[in-house]
Specification:
This protein is α+β, with helices and mostly antiparallel strands. Helix content is 13%, strand content 28%. The chain has a 7-stranded antiparallel sheet with strand order 4-3-18-17-1-2-19.
Length: 293
Protein backbone atom coordinates (compact mmCIF):
# COMPACT_ATOMS: atom_id res chain seq x y z
CA UNK A 1 0.00 0.00 0.00
CA UNK A 2 1.63 3.22 -1.11
CA UNK A 3 1.30 6.09 1.34
CA UNK A 4 4.36 8.08 0.33
CA UNK A 5 4.64 11.32 -1.63
CA UNK A 6 4.42 9.66 -5.07
CA UNK A 7 1.52 10.93 -7.23
CA UNK A 8 0.34 7.31 -7.67
CA UNK A 9 0.20 6.55 -3.94
CA UNK A 10 -3.12 5.93 -2.22
CA UNK A 11 -2.54 8.98 -0.04
CA UNK A 12 -2.26 11.27 -3.04
CA UNK A 13 -4.88 9.72 -5.33
CA UNK A 14 -7.55 9.84 -2.59
CA UNK A 15 -6.41 13.15 -1.15
CA UNK A 16 -10.01 14.41 -1.00
CA UNK A 17 -10.54 11.75 1.68
CA UNK A 18 -7.09 11.34 3.23
CA UNK A 19 -6.31 15.07 3.36
CA UNK A 20 -2.69 13.96 2.94
CA UNK A 21 -2.71 12.52 6.47
CA UNK A 22 -2.62 9.01 7.88
CA UNK A 23 -2.11 7.54 11.33
CA UNK A 24 -1.48 4.19 13.02
CA UNK A 25 -0.71 2.76 16.45
CA UNK A 26 1.00 -0.65 16.39
CA UNK A 27 0.00 -3.27 18.94
CA UNK A 28 3.13 -4.82 20.45
CA UNK A 29 3.59 -8.52 21.10
CA UNK A 30 3.80 -9.42 24.80
CA UNK A 31 5.86 -12.56 25.49
CA UNK A 32 3.71 -15.54 26.41
CA UNK A 33 0.44 -13.99 25.23
CA UNK A 34 -1.78 -14.43 22.21
CA UNK A 35 -0.82 -12.57 19.02
CA UNK A 36 -1.96 -8.94 19.18
CA UNK A 37 -5.04 -7.73 17.33
CA UNK A 38 -4.53 -5.97 14.03
CA UNK A 39 -4.12 -2.21 14.14
CA UNK A 40 -6.23 0.35 12.33
CA UNK A 41 -4.87 2.68 9.68
CA UNK A 42 -6.72 6.00 9.86
CA UNK A 43 -7.00 8.82 7.35
CA UNK A 44 -8.00 12.47 7.29
CA UNK A 45 -10.79 13.49 9.67
CA UNK A 46 -10.79 10.00 11.19
CA UNK A 47 -7.52 10.90 12.96
CA UNK A 48 -8.29 12.25 16.42
CA UNK A 49 -5.60 14.08 18.40
CA UNK A 50 -7.78 15.35 21.22
CA UNK A 51 -5.97 17.56 23.72
CA UNK A 52 -2.92 15.36 23.96
CA UNK A 53 0.49 16.97 23.60
CA UNK A 54 2.13 15.28 20.64
CA UNK A 55 5.78 15.70 19.84
CA UNK A 56 6.54 16.65 16.25
CA UNK A 57 9.52 16.53 13.94
CA UNK A 58 9.84 17.68 10.32
CA UNK A 59 9.30 15.26 7.44
CA UNK A 60 11.94 15.74 4.77
CA UNK A 61 11.77 14.63 1.16
CA UNK A 62 14.29 13.85 -1.55
CA UNK A 63 13.70 15.00 -5.15
CA UNK A 64 14.15 11.50 -6.56
CA UNK A 65 12.77 9.46 -3.63
CA UNK A 66 9.12 9.50 -2.46
CA UNK A 67 9.90 8.38 1.11
CA UNK A 68 9.46 10.46 4.25
CA UNK A 69 12.86 11.10 5.79
CA UNK A 70 13.56 12.27 9.35
CA UNK A 71 16.42 14.34 10.71
CA UNK A 72 17.90 11.96 13.31
CA UNK A 73 20.62 13.75 15.28
CA UNK A 74 21.78 11.35 17.99
CA UNK A 75 20.80 8.38 20.19
CA UNK A 76 20.68 7.49 23.88
CA UNK A 77 20.85 4.08 25.59
CA UNK A 78 19.78 3.69 29.23
CA UNK A 79 19.94 7.43 29.79
CA UNK A 80 23.47 7.77 28.38
CA UNK A 81 23.68 9.91 25.25
CA UNK A 82 26.09 8.61 22.64
CA UNK A 83 27.12 12.00 21.17
CA UNK A 84 27.52 10.61 17.67
CA UNK A 85 29.23 12.85 15.07
CA UNK A 86 26.95 15.36 13.31
CA UNK A 87 25.63 14.01 10.03
CA UNK A 88 25.83 10.34 11.06
CA UNK A 89 22.21 9.71 10.03
CA UNK A 90 21.87 12.49 7.44
CA UNK A 91 20.39 12.13 3.97
CA UNK A 92 23.25 12.96 1.60
CA UNK A 93 23.04 14.97 -1.60
CA UNK A 94 23.61 11.84 -3.69
CA UNK A 95 20.51 10.24 -2.12
CA UNK A 96 22.35 7.78 0.12
CA UNK A 97 21.94 7.50 3.88
CA UNK A 98 19.04 9.13 5.67
CA UNK A 99 16.55 7.87 8.27
CA UNK A 100 12.97 6.64 7.90
CA UNK A 101 10.34 5.01 10.11
CA UNK A 102 8.81 1.92 8.47
CA UNK A 103 5.96 -0.20 9.84
CA UNK A 104 6.73 -2.93 7.30
CA UNK A 105 10.20 -3.63 8.71
CA UNK A 106 10.35 -5.74 11.87
CA UNK A 107 13.78 -4.91 13.27
CA UNK A 108 15.53 -1.55 13.36
CA UNK A 109 18.48 -1.15 10.98
CA UNK A 110 21.20 1.28 12.06
CA UNK A 111 23.92 2.69 9.83
CA UNK A 112 27.23 0.91 10.36
CA UNK A 113 28.88 4.19 11.34
CA UNK A 114 26.75 4.30 14.51
CA UNK A 115 25.89 0.64 15.10
CA UNK A 116 29.06 -0.43 17.03
CA UNK A 117 28.67 2.42 19.51
CA UNK A 118 25.02 1.58 20.02
CA UNK A 119 25.57 -2.16 20.54
CA UNK A 120 28.51 -1.46 22.85
CA UNK A 121 26.27 0.72 25.04
CA UNK A 122 23.74 -2.12 25.37
CA UNK A 123 26.49 -4.65 26.08
CA UNK A 124 27.99 -2.47 28.81
CA UNK A 125 24.58 -2.12 30.42
CA UNK A 126 23.81 -5.86 30.55
CA UNK A 127 27.34 -7.07 31.31
CA UNK A 128 27.57 -4.66 34.24
CA UNK A 129 24.36 -6.13 35.66
CA UNK A 130 25.48 -9.73 35.36
CA UNK A 131 23.25 -10.92 32.51
CA UNK A 132 24.45 -14.13 30.85
CA UNK A 133 25.25 -13.62 27.19
CA UNK A 134 24.17 -16.29 24.70
CA UNK A 135 24.94 -16.81 21.03
CA UNK A 136 22.02 -16.73 18.62
CA UNK A 137 22.85 -16.71 14.89
CA UNK A 138 22.23 -13.48 12.95
CA UNK A 139 21.94 -11.36 16.11
CA UNK A 140 24.90 -9.57 17.62
CA UNK A 141 23.75 -9.21 21.22
CA UNK A 142 21.55 -11.70 23.09
CA UNK A 143 21.14 -12.64 26.76
CA UNK A 144 19.29 -15.24 28.81
CA UNK A 145 16.14 -14.15 30.57
CA UNK A 146 16.40 -13.82 34.32
CA UNK A 147 13.25 -14.89 36.18
CA UNK A 148 10.06 -13.97 34.36
CA UNK A 149 10.11 -12.82 30.77
CA UNK A 150 9.74 -9.10 31.38
CA UNK A 151 11.95 -6.16 30.52
CA UNK A 152 11.40 -3.99 33.60
CA UNK A 153 15.14 -3.84 34.40
CA UNK A 154 16.31 -3.51 30.79
CA UNK A 155 17.72 -0.48 28.99
CA UNK A 156 15.50 1.89 27.05
CA UNK A 157 16.60 3.67 23.86
CA UNK A 158 15.95 7.19 22.58
CA UNK A 159 16.07 8.59 19.06
CA UNK A 160 16.88 12.31 19.16
CA UNK A 161 15.18 13.94 16.18
CA UNK A 162 15.04 17.56 15.22
CA UNK A 163 12.79 19.19 17.86
CA UNK A 164 11.62 15.85 19.30
CA UNK A 165 12.86 12.86 21.31
CA UNK A 166 11.34 9.44 20.66
CA UNK A 167 12.03 7.22 23.68
CA UNK A 168 11.48 3.51 23.08
CA UNK A 169 10.62 1.85 26.37
CA UNK A 170 12.41 -1.41 27.17
CA UNK A 171 9.37 -3.54 26.28
CA UNK A 172 9.82 -2.54 22.64
CA UNK A 173 13.62 -2.65 22.29
CA UNK A 174 14.14 -6.43 22.45
CA UNK A 175 13.02 -9.53 20.60
CA UNK A 176 12.14 -12.64 22.68
CA UNK A 177 13.64 -15.86 21.29
CA UNK A 178 11.18 -18.65 22.09
CA UNK A 179 13.52 -21.63 21.65
CA UNK A 180 16.37 -20.26 23.76
CA UNK A 181 14.70 -18.65 26.80
CA UNK A 182 16.54 -15.54 25.72
CA UNK A 183 16.12 -12.10 24.20
CA UNK A 184 18.09 -10.16 21.61
CA UNK A 185 18.55 -6.45 21.02
CA UNK A 186 16.30 -5.86 18.01
CA UNK A 187 18.92 -4.02 15.97
CA UNK A 188 20.88 -4.85 12.85
CA UNK A 189 23.64 -2.95 11.02
CA UNK A 190 23.23 -1.56 7.53
CA UNK A 191 25.96 -0.23 5.20
CA UNK A 192 26.65 3.53 5.54
CA UNK A 193 25.24 4.26 2.08
CA UNK A 194 21.88 2.71 2.98
CA UNK A 195 19.09 4.11 5.15
CA UNK A 196 18.70 3.84 8.87
CA UNK A 197 15.24 2.27 9.33
CA UNK A 198 13.29 2.43 12.60
CA UNK A 199 11.27 -0.77 12.50
CA UNK A 200 7.91 -1.90 13.84
CA UNK A 201 9.14 -3.46 17.10
CA UNK A 202 10.43 -0.09 18.30
CA UNK A 203 7.11 1.54 17.39
CA UNK A 204 4.94 -0.49 19.77
CA UNK A 205 2.26 1.44 21.69
CA UNK A 206 3.04 4.75 20.02
CA UNK A 207 0.57 6.77 17.96
CA UNK A 208 2.13 8.15 14.76
CA UNK A 209 0.51 10.77 12.55
CA UNK A 210 2.05 11.47 9.16
CA UNK A 211 0.91 14.92 8.05
CA UNK A 212 2.32 15.21 4.54
CA UNK A 213 0.60 18.53 3.92
CA UNK A 214 2.30 20.14 6.92
CA UNK A 215 5.51 18.10 6.48
CA UNK A 216 5.33 16.89 10.06
CA UNK A 217 5.52 13.54 11.87
CA UNK A 218 3.66 13.64 15.18
CA UNK A 219 3.87 10.95 17.86
CA UNK A 220 2.83 10.18 21.42
CA UNK A 221 2.70 7.12 23.70
CA UNK A 222 -0.65 5.32 23.54
CA UNK A 223 -2.22 2.00 24.52
CA UNK A 224 -2.78 0.74 20.99
CA UNK A 225 -5.20 -1.99 22.07
CA UNK A 226 -7.76 0.78 22.52
CA UNK A 227 -7.65 1.27 18.75
CA UNK A 228 -7.40 -2.37 17.66
CA UNK A 229 -9.56 -4.04 15.03
CA UNK A 230 -10.82 -6.56 17.60
CA UNK A 231 -12.58 -3.73 19.45
CA UNK A 232 -14.22 -2.22 16.36
CA UNK A 233 -17.08 -4.02 14.57
CA UNK A 234 -16.35 -4.45 10.88
CA UNK A 235 -19.51 -4.32 8.80
CA UNK A 236 -20.46 -4.19 5.17
CA UNK A 237 -18.62 -1.07 3.91
CA UNK A 238 -21.70 -0.11 1.87
CA UNK A 239 -23.61 0.43 5.11
CA UNK A 240 -23.04 3.02 7.85
CA UNK A 241 -20.96 1.81 10.77
CA UNK A 242 -22.65 0.98 14.06
CA UNK A 243 -20.95 3.10 16.75
CA UNK A 244 -23.09 1.91 19.64
CA UNK A 245 -20.48 -0.46 21.08
CA UNK A 246 -17.39 1.55 20.23
CA UNK A 247 -16.60 4.84 21.91
CA UNK A 248 -13.34 5.13 19.99
CA UNK A 249 -14.97 5.62 16.57
CA UNK A 250 -15.81 9.12 15.42
CA UNK A 251 -19.54 9.73 14.85
CA UNK A 252 -19.00 12.55 12.37
CA UNK A 253 -16.91 10.94 9.66
CA UNK A 254 -18.44 10.61 6.20
CA UNK A 255 -19.65 7.36 4.69
CA UNK A 256 -16.73 7.45 2.26
CA UNK A 257 -14.32 7.89 5.15
CA UNK A 258 -15.86 4.97 7.01
CA UNK A 259 -15.55 2.71 3.99
CA UNK A 260 -11.90 3.68 3.55
CA UNK A 261 -11.14 2.92 7.19
CA UNK A 262 -12.71 -0.53 7.01
CA UNK A 263 -11.55 -1.58 3.57
CA UNK A 264 -8.00 -0.25 3.63
CA UNK A 265 -7.32 0.31 7.32
CA UNK A 266 -5.73 -2.96 8.41
CA UNK A 267 -2.15 -3.61 9.46
CA UNK A 268 -1.25 -7.14 10.49
CA UNK A 269 1.71 -7.64 12.79
CA UNK A 270 2.56 -11.31 12.55
CA UNK A 271 6.23 -10.46 13.11
CA UNK A 272 5.51 -9.51 16.75
CA UNK A 273 5.36 -13.08 18.03
CA UNK A 274 8.64 -14.60 19.27
CA UNK A 275 10.57 -16.08 16.39
CA UNK A 276 11.99 -19.56 16.26
CA UNK A 277 15.43 -20.53 15.00
CA UNK A 278 14.17 -21.73 11.62
CA UNK A 279 12.43 -18.39 11.06
CA UNK A 280 15.33 -16.08 11.88
CA UNK A 281 16.68 -15.79 8.34
CA UNK A 282 13.33 -14.89 6.78
CA UNK A 283 12.50 -12.52 9.64
CA UNK A 284 15.63 -10.50 9.04
CA UNK A 285 14.82 -10.30 5.34
CA UNK A 286 11.50 -8.58 6.10
CA UNK A 287 13.47 -5.36 5.69
CA UNK A 288 12.92 -5.72 1.95
CA UNK A 289 9.10 -5.60 2.16
CA UNK A 290 7.50 -2.34 3.22
CA UNK A 291 3.84 -1.86 4.12
CA UNK A 292 4.07 1.92 4.33
CA UNK A 293 6.38 4.52 2.79
Amino acid sequence: MGLNTSPVSLLQQLSHITQHRFSYCLNPYQHGSEPPPSSLLRFGNDIRKGRRRFQSTPLMSSPDRPNYFLNLLDMTVAGQRLHLPPGTFALRQDGTGGTIIDSGTGLTFITQTAYPRLISAFQNYFDHRGFQRVHIPEFDLCYSFRGNHTFHDHASMTFHFERADFTVQADYVYLPMEDDNAFCVALQPTPPQQRTVIGAINQGNTRFIYDAAAHQLLFIAENCRNDAISTIPVQDPSKPLDHSNNVQQSKTVSKDQQSLTVRYGLITLDHYRPIRKKEQHSFLREKATSTFP
